[in-house]
Amino acid sequence: MAAQDPASGCLHGKKQLPAFTWEVKANDRNYHMQFKKKVAFCLTKKKYAGNAIKTAKYNIFTFLPLNLYEQFHRMANVYFVFVILLQTFPEISTLPWYTLLFPLSCLLTIRGLRDLIDDIGRHQSDRNINSRPCEILSGKSFRWQKWRDICVGDIVRLRKESFVPADMLLLCSSEPSSLCYVETADIDGETNLKFRQALLVTHQELVSEESMAAFDGRVICEEPNSRMHSFTGTLEWRGETYALDSERILLRGCKLRNTNVCYGLVIYAGFDSKIMRNCGKIKQKKTKLDRMMDRLVIIIFLVLLVTSLCLAIASGFWARMFQEKHSYLSALYKHTTPAQQAFFNFGGFTILLSIIIPMSMYITFEFIYLVNNFFISWDLEMYYAVKDIPAKARSTSLNDQLGQIEYIFSDKTGTLTQNVMSFKKCCINGTIYGTSTGHENKQPSGSGLTWSHHGEKLDFCDKTLLEAAWRDNDPVLREFLRLLALCHTVMVEEKGDQLVYQAASPDEEALVLAARNLGYVFLARTQDTITISELGMKRTYKVLAMLDFNSDRKRMSVLVRDPQGTIRLYTKGADTVILERLQGRGPNETFTEMALDCFAEETLRTLCLASKEVSEVEYSTWSRRHCEASILLQDRARELDKLYEEMEQNLQLLGATAIEDKLQDGVPETIQLLKLGNIKVWVLTGDKQETAMNIGYACKLLTDDMEILEEKEIRSQSKPGSTLAPDTSSSHSEILEAYWVSSNNLSSRGEALCSGRLSQEHPEPSCHKKRALIISGDFLDKILHTGEVLKEKKGRLWRWLACCRATDSQEQGSLVEKAFVDLATSCQAVICCRVTPKQKALIVQLVKKHKKAITLAIGDGANDVNMIKTADIGVGISGLEGMQAVQCSDYALAQFSYLQRLLLVHGRWAYLRICKFLRYFFYKTFAGLMAQVWFAFHSGFTAQPLYEGWFLALYNIFYTACPVLSMGLLEQDVSAKKSLEFPELYVIGQQDELFNYRVFSVTLLHGVSTSLASFYIALWAFEDHVGSKVVGDYESFAITVATSALLSVLMEIILDTKFWTAVSLLMVTASLLFFCFLSFLTQSIDAFRIAPTVFCFPDASRNALTDPYVLLVVLLSLVVNTVPSLTIRLYRTITGKTTIQQKIHLKARREPEPSVELRAHVPRGSFHRRSSYAFSHQEGYAGLITRGDSLRAGATRSTAPGLLPPETTPGLSSLPSPSE
User: Fold this and answer.
1) CA atoms within 13 A on the CB side of 536
2) Order of strands across the sheet with 392-393?
3) Residue 317 is inside which H or E element, if any?
4) Residue burial 57-66, b: 16+ Cβ < 10 Å; e: rest
5) Furthest-apart CA atoms within the chain: distance in Å
6) Integer Cα distance of 355 and 334 in angstroms
7) Which segments carry the region annotation Disordered (predicted)?
8) 685 labelled as ligand-binding?
9) Which stretch of 143-157, 225-239, 842-856, 1094-1108 has the lowest confidence by average pLDDT?
10) Which of 802, 966, 1051, 1113 is 20 to 30 A from 783 via CA?
11) 840 marked as part of a ligand binding site
């Protein structure tokens, strides 16, 4: 293997590099234009994408065909078109075809406009992003252009606080050694700053715009992909080859922080960039009820066709018998045969019964969804007054699914947390400070402290601690505060009389600010010195070595020589690593451990602080070995770690700090409520594992009585005697084994996992133990092979081809996926750390695929967009990371805590309302219109309508629509307050209890029985009896059946309405008034005279409904139809099948159970106690400081003076603060 120069990145000798096919030539657009790639068949497009992006679904040409194509995926729309086509045949038509086309057009137009409005918003967002200004090298100078004008191979100049427009190779910057500091909040959610560094050769050679214009390097690298944290390639220039990795690359979406100017070569542009590769496509979202409705439409349509066919066959036989029996009427049938008669009757019956699936139901559907959206937007309990942000329902067709959520996938930074670190408490020499609540943000009176001009206010102030610091008679306290001011990688900049700290992580900044507030002020640093002010006295320490932080060491140290010449080592880190390196254990150490337990229970982030004095002899020996290890070409990191380990022994404990990572208001309470509602919350974050775990404990997602399963625990759970193939990776085999055990040994899901010996140390049964799973993005890649999930393709042909191509490895991959999902869903909490945006979406997709569960994703940044698009419901938080998540979401909230009201109140109500609406719409349709079928048996199967045409037309629009609409808009089983008090009620929606195939079947039978009773009671009454006005005519019979069915439907809705308002009462009254008034209009004599074929029931209602005999028949029908419903309700009450309200009252009467505070069950002296350590820091900053790479000696950068734009004045190099 060739050796690599660590400073220059140059590869010496010959090395077999991977066959990369992505070639980028600097400053040569024509070179990239010539390459094409095949898209499909003979179609090709440019291999190198432009930088313009398009996230919108439609354009001016594709909107109409694509939108109609999407809308006709709804089976109901296809059904309506089929009915309209039937109506175009005059022989079988009952209504002009255009009377049905108009409402269908209205329905399609309403949905189309809704989709158009959403897409216009996406077009505006795309236009704003593509029109952002940037400086592109054109010729020999930089010119301001738009992002969309950038091409692969262009050189772009970026300025401080600007966003990176494409994935670029960093060429150089205004910082020393061409460092560049970026914030990746939009990519991984972290606000910690990360540094990137250019190659030494480009840093030294590209010193002017002329040299930039002459740069002709060639980058050969991997094809565009979605791997955010990896990049492999080479730069070929002037006959040399230089290795490239992710540390040289600036990704699109990063923000340049406190780097005045940098220059980059565009490698991937537009949709080839890594962030865009992680952004999924916009998916058509359909609710569970929508999909069920599509299936029901098919079922109803098939039943309708079978019924029509049976009636048509019967009509053919009846026509034949009628002709033979009544030969004198043969003239009427001389142009037709019984078979033809049956054929025409089949069409007539199909049209006559087609209104069983009424178009008005879907139009009312849309109206209910729209109004429920307004209810969400108008809810003052979800209005964030601080920033004037109301809740907003951006989707108008997903409300009912809010009441069926089973899994919530949440981002961490900006969603659960505010990402604001606050120094809350500390323990020093056996004393805990910061416990009182009445601290004033001022110094003790008469103290004479002089460091206050360095800060605006004291973020942390304990009067006792301030006075102790001022007395300066406690050497441990002095060393504690001195450590906070010395042991860090923070940079400082003085603006006026204010010191501005720029830290690589918010933790570091909080600690340095706490030291400043207590009189130990960090003033300045150079490559080998650090200056602080101790209670007003300036002291300069010589930095001998910085022992850098990394995730394995979990600590950092600084070795300094104080002004008196004494050498001291200051160390801070996790309690688990510091406590085991102490010289001895005494009362103070024991008390500090107890304090750490207290801090951990309060979910504060803790660090232990320790120091020791180092002799000159020990330092001389160690320093010599350190210098030798620093120049090793092999195993350098391992040798340095050994030296660091040697030095960091026999420490003296100084104390511990406790920092609060502030959660958003109400997050723990919200998660607890969601858990009680049987909703599982998973946290998917790009942050480090320690930070994510701390937030998990802080928000009560994790508790101290949980067994934490990490990657190493899962790997240690392999069962002896495994029979898996030897070539299967270890992580695959163990998860597969857990799955096999769970699926083959035991029936209970909880017991199954227990039987796999998930903990070898404690083999006793732990089936009821709570578990939490914590895994990383790398572990997910191992599970998902290449990090991709095989997309589910629809269609018989594709599935057949896929089966033909299936291999054992693919089958095993699917088994691994299912095993992982089974393991994860059996845990009470899941946290996935260091995951990319695409991995977030893949996790959501896996749960949807294998659990068939309804999912919700919530986030606030661009890194959450793919997850939000993939989940069944996407919620965007209007946070600090821009509006990308909100623009792609279905619902927008200002705070995570509003999720409890969105789901437990609005979601549950919406599900209840839609289910009751569907139930009663079907019921009233069957109850009113199935009488047409029974009438056919008494009308010679001639498809003769029973009802007046106007009654059929107005039945679903005016006569019965109002009460059902009221139920769909206003129905509540319990109040909002009770919904939050009893989140267990939410389970009803998860289990599909209110509308399913069983409920539909019962509704169908109920409607059929109502229609049978209404029809045959009237038929029995009219058969041999005559009233004072009614003579048993067809019109009066039709009016009697119609009135009986209508009143029975209204009575059923009245009985089942739980929440009565003035509007509900008004709607029922309006239905009766509509029936009376419109019947009078359509059956008036005047209307009959004007159009006798249209208004063919003159005075029928007035004649029938004024006859006491008919009214008694109607009353009898009403009683017969209502008594069964009342009987069932009475039976449920007697047998103890309580209603929801009764369950609530019973639960409310119980004695409140005492709340149990969960605490760690491990003895406090044990090192197995949970550590609440978290330090969101990146390795490498110590090396930058000691090498002087991040420190600027003069006022200008001597290596590249010609690259600084005229308006840019370099100052002190600094690490930008995440809070800037």
Assistant:
1) 8
2) 392-393, 891-893, 873-877, 855-859, 407-410, 680-684, 829-833, 771-776, 707-709
3) helix 288-325
4) bbeeeebeee
5) 133
6) 32
7) 1195-1220
8) yes
9) 1094-1108
10) 802
11) yes
**508 labelled binding-site residue:** yes
Q: Taking a C-beta distance cutoff of 8 angstroms, is the pair 793, 799 a contact?
A: yes
**φ, ψ dihedrals at 712, nearest 5°:** -70, -35
Residue 417 counted as an annotated binding residue:
no
863 is in an annotated binding site: yes
Judge whether 142 and 258 are in contact, CB under 8 Å. no
Closest CA to 263 of 139, 155, 144: 155
- Parallel/antiparallel/unpaired status of strands 407-410 and 855-859: parallel
- Residue recorded with tokens 């960090």: 522
CA atoms within 13 A on the CB side of 253: 29
Residue listed under structure tokens 């010191």: 499
Residue 557 DSSP code: E
Token duo for residue 939: 């009308």
CA 179 to chain centre: 35
Q: What is the DSSP letter of 983?
A: G
**566 belongs to an annotated ligand binding site:** no
CA–CA distances in Å: residue 731 to residues 50, 781, 832:
40, 11, 16
pTM of the model: 0.78
How far is the C-alpha of 891 from the C-alpha of 911, rounded, in Å?
16
Token pair, residue 269, equals 């542009």
Which secondary structure element, helix H or strand E, spans residue 243, and what is its range? strand 240-244
CA dist list (Å): 667 to 387, 411, 660, 1189: 18, 13, 14, 42
For residue range 1034-1075, list pLDDT tens digits in order.
888 889 999 999 999 999 999 998 889 999 999 999 999 999
152 contacts 375 by C-beta, under 8 angstroms: no
Nearest CA-CA partner of 1029 in 1127, 1102, 1095, 1115: 1102
Beta bridge partners of 224: none
Residue 411 annotated to the active site: yes
The string of pLDDT tens digits covering residues 48-107 is 989 998 888 888 899 999 999 888 888 888 888 888 888 888 777 766 677 678 888 888
In three-state secondary structure terms, 283 is: coil
Alpha-carbon distance 607 to 610, whole Å?
10
